[in-house]
Amino acid sequence: MRGSAHLAIGLITGVAVAGLVRGIPFSLPGIALAGFSALAPDLDHPESRLSQRLGFVQGYVRWAFGAAALGLAAYAYFMLRPGPDQRLSYVAALAFGLLGIGLQGGSARKLALLFTGLGTVLAGLYAQFLWLSLLGTFISLAPFTSHRTWTHTLWATAFWTYIGYLANQALGWHGVAYYAGAGYASHLLADSLTKSGVRWLMPLTDFSFKIPVLSTGTKTGNVLEAAICLGYGLLVLGLVIGRVGF
């Protein structure tokens, strides 16, 4: 299922949580969090919407390696005397330069997300927010997994919900775990409607849970995605209005 459909389903799920779960306040940030969470499982996919957004430093990764190469070469030339140490520094500079040249597409994206995630981990450690460090850990590791494997499991959903729970405890924002967990789970449920399905219980079993009604990337599949989003939205809207009593 396309990222736009996942985002729409996640936002609708956020509305459902806000309007139907007793004791959860209606919150636009909460609905936005559900939408963000619905995109999170696809951080393992190089073309996913969230992967590209969080990998915003991708364009600078190669420049960083190039700068490191030049810095090492300059250090070796101006600060070291001719000899083994200088030659070793030149070799290291050459290695960094070759890495920068070789980093294309997926490799640069993975490193960019790794740097983004590690930065988030450090920010969490500095602020003493465990939830922020766990979020950074997820962002760092997800790009290095195969698509629809570890991030598309019941355990990943529980982990993401736990991050929301910790954020709720730290920030006092009631309902974070509900918005985060429901949004994340909506992604897996939506992908279960595709022909590939989802291995919810991996690694306990490789069985793929699916109701194969969608063929992602086809015109028919795109129409069905839009219809599912519209139908789901109308259903949630009707339930919320019925509960509010308009």
Short description:
The protein is an all-alpha fold and 246 residues long. Helix content is 70%, strand content 0%. The chain is elongated, with a radius of gyration of 22 Å.
Please, could you describe this protein's structure?
- The protein is mostly helical.
- It is elongated and about 80 Å long.
- It is built from 10 helices and no strands.
Q: Could you give the topology of this structure?
A:
Layout: H1 3-20, H2 28-39, H3 49-54, H4 58-79, H5 84-102, H6 106-127, H7 130-141, H8 154-171, H9 176-191, H10 219-244
Helix/strand-derived category reads mainly alpha
Helix fraction bin: 55-70%
Which whole number gives the mean pLDDT? 81
What summary fits the major beta sheet? none
Dominant shape: elongated
Tally of DSSP β-strands:
0
Distance between the termini: 34 Å
**Strand-residue proportion:** under 5%
Radius of gyration: 22 Å
Q: How many helical stretches?
A: 10
Q: How do the helices and strands follow one another from N- to C-terminus?
A: HHHHHHHHHH
pLDDT under 50 segments (min length 5)? Answer: none
